[in-house]
Amino acid sequence: MTEARRNVRQNHLALAQKILSVAMARGLKSGDHLAEQTFSEACGVSRTPIRSAFKVLEERDILQWRQEEGYFLRLGTADEIASVIRALEDAENSVADRILSDRAERRISDVQSVSALTRRYKVPRASVLNALKILAKDGIVRQLPGRAWAFQPMVDSPAGLEDSFDFRLIMEPQAIIAPEFALDSKRAGLLREQMNSTLSKLDGRLTPAIFRRIDIEFHTLIAECSGNRFLRGTLAAHHRLRKASQKSAAIPDFRLKQAMLEHLEILDSLERNQFQLAADQIIVHLRRSRIRKPQAANRGIPPLGQGSRT
Amino acid sequence: MNRPPEIAFFPEASFGAALNCVGIAQALQRQGANPVFICHAGFTGVFAEYGFKEYHLPDHPGSSAEAIADYWQDFINTHLPHFDLSPLAQLDTYVGPTWRAIVETAIAAEDDLARLLAQIRPDAIVLDNVIMFPAIANAGCPWVRIVSCAETEIPDAAVPPYLSGLAPGEDTGAFDAAYAAATRDVHRQYNAFRKRHGLHALPPGIFLEPSEDLNLLLAPQAVRYERAEPLDPERFVFLEGCVRHENDYELPRFAVEGGPLVYVGFGSLGAVDTDLIKRMLAVFQTIPARFLVNVGGLIEAYDSVPDNVHLASWFPQPSVIEQAALVIHHGGNNTFCEALYHGVPSLVMPYCWDGHDNAQRAEGAGVGRSINRAGWSDASLRAAIVDVLEDASMRRRLAEVARGMQADPGTSRAAKGILDLLD
């Protein structure tokens, strides 16, 4: 597959995921009709790519095509849809995804050769090289002099997470208060709808994976709306790294909902152009989110924790 | 009463106690009470994440993050070798020094705790600890004791001594004598502290008296001891586990699929022994099962993790155990009860304290096996895991245990007992 065709295919897969997220947020059930126009507006793209993404979903038996009627949802429950979204994520970038997943799981070390990866995944050398190039584009690996490739630090340990929060606490408020912050109101509206629907339609059960997807989308939106081009690029790259390397953290239901409500409050402030307030709110939001459990605790001994710094 | 009853929880600085209390607090909240938590500053956010208000005991000079990290490093260097010793040999090396640390902590916390209680003015206090704080006895409201380590905490002629790891009927003479000797000085220090705050002295070896109002024992029927003198059911309420609500756990993607799911967690203290866990990972690699391993804050110590293993710093344990076919743990009572509650067998590798008692109990009650931390080989660990996974009769017995426990959740029973005190 040529690079261009691969990119088009990946775009369709990414859009297919988005369509399913919207369907899930809107509580669509098996047999419900998916109108092209509705999804075109919700996803902020024209109807042509929506049609292609519908076709991808039809190929996977997720949607059903009926002559002169259009596309209908085959899946019934939110769980089924969530698992399909996950499968689509896998398909999107299979070799790159497997390399990344194995690094995030610490199954492979931080310096790798193409030959070792070729042996591990039993795929042609060209596929591994292509996967490494995809990962390099996101700053996850870089080629060392010679044939080795080195993984960059990831957000995959308590110390890494701590550094990530330190970095975000500096950068995210600045991204908001930098002159000419311009909220993409269409994306913000879609996110707001997803967050509200998720909060109201899950019978009080918001899974960490759903939260994480929305969380990264929300913070990426803020980064990409910044008026400062360097903050924009640096933060967006960091959120890509978070998406790539972080597992779904085990966070209690209460905090997941509280964090989602904080997102909505920040959006409110941004929509009213109250940027300083939004910057303050994002500091509170990040400080609350960064509180980590003690690393070690035992009777009679002060807990070795990370939370007291904030 | 015009406001909802305010219940102040004061769990000791360990995750087992902290999370038991979360389970009871969730049940109290459902019944209209307002649970709050008093905790060490190092536990900041642990209870707030579940939606509970926290009151922090202040840090003292000399307890900077760096100083605590150094303290832990010294603790690990000193005590890691002791975890390989027998319960008897641990009395001088680990138990005695730990009681000293506990007593010193209680003395240091007293004034701040009294101040916090005066500020909160709770309607009842729930203490999940191994030592009494005079501020609680003097707070002017009922207090509830949670016995969450092991039933052996409440002595009886027919129950083996606390921390001994002995089975009922075994000779306790040597252990009793060694325990008394190991704790004599620190116990004298503790009684003097009690006296200064108007509390009566406790008998040798005892650091926490039963509450006059209510005692909640985290000891499910399946692992309970026959007592020579039955406990007064009005004051001593046995709980069938104390399992909190957590979000559903979505399994990670393993590089190899299939096989039963095994959860491995040795508590945050056990996680410091990264060499032992690495040796275990090499054995897990040879077993056709998937392993979720809790490595606490030390995930960066691991590399070349096997394809059938997933490491994480924290798991929502009840939701994970619910999906597991086996739990390998250190004998912490919280984990042990969560396994029983979900009908999952335990393979207990104790390293200290109540872990020895619970390992013996798992084996004695036929709900698990114990394995010596210092004495296993790759082959014996592998055989123990495979044997328990294949033990159909143990699984049937556990299914029955789980049905009984789930029909009478300890969290609801505890919440009812606490609220009844206030009527």
Describe this structure in words.
The complex is a heterodimer of chains A (310) and B (423). By secondary structure, chain A is mainly α. Chain A has 13 helices and 8 strands. Chain A has 3 domains: 88 residues, Orthogonal Bundle (Arc Repressor Mutant, subunit A), CATH 1.10.10.10; 57 residues, Arc Repressor Mutant, subunit A; 139 residues, GntR ligand-binding domain-like (Four Helix Bundle (Hemerythrin (Met), subunit A), Up-down Bundle), CATH 1.20.120. The model of chain A has no long low-confidence stretch (mean pLDDT 85). In chain A, the strands form 3 sheets. A 3-stranded antiparallel beta sheet of chain A has the order 1-3-2. In chain B, the strands form 2 sheets. In chain B, strands 3-2-1-4-5-6-7 form a 7-stranded parallel beta sheet, sandwiched between helices. A 6-stranded parallel beta sheet of chain B has the order 10-9-8-11-12-13, sandwiched between helices. Chain B folds into 2 domains: 249 residues, Glycogen Phosphorylase B (Rossmann fold), CATH 3.40.50; 146 residues, 3-Layer(aba) Sandwich (Rossmann fold). In chain B, β11, α9 and β12 form a beta-alpha-beta unit. Chain B is globular, with a radius of gyration of 21 Å. Chain B is α/β, with parallel strands linked by helices and 423 residues long. The relative contact order of chain B is 0.13.
Backbone structural class of chain A: mainly alpha
CATH architecture descriptor of the largest domain in chain A: Up-down Bundle
Residue-averaged pLDDT of chain B, rounded?
94
Strand runs of chain B, count: 13
Spatial strand sequence of the major β-sheet of chain A:
1-3-2
Query: Using only CA atoms, what is the Rg of chain A?
Result: 21 Å
What is the C-level CATH assignment of the largest domain in chain A? Answer: Mainly Alpha
Q: Main β-sheet of chain A: number of strands, strand sense, barrel status?
A: 3 strands, antiparallel
Oligomer: heterodimer
Roughly how much helix do the residues of chain B carry, as a percent range?
40-55%
The chain pair with the largest interface is: A-B, 48 and 65 residues
Overall mean pLDDT of chain A: 85
Which term fits the overall shape of chain B? globular
Strand-residue proportion of chain B: 5-15%
The number of domains of chain A is 3
Helix content of chain A: 55-70%
Shape summary of chain A = globular
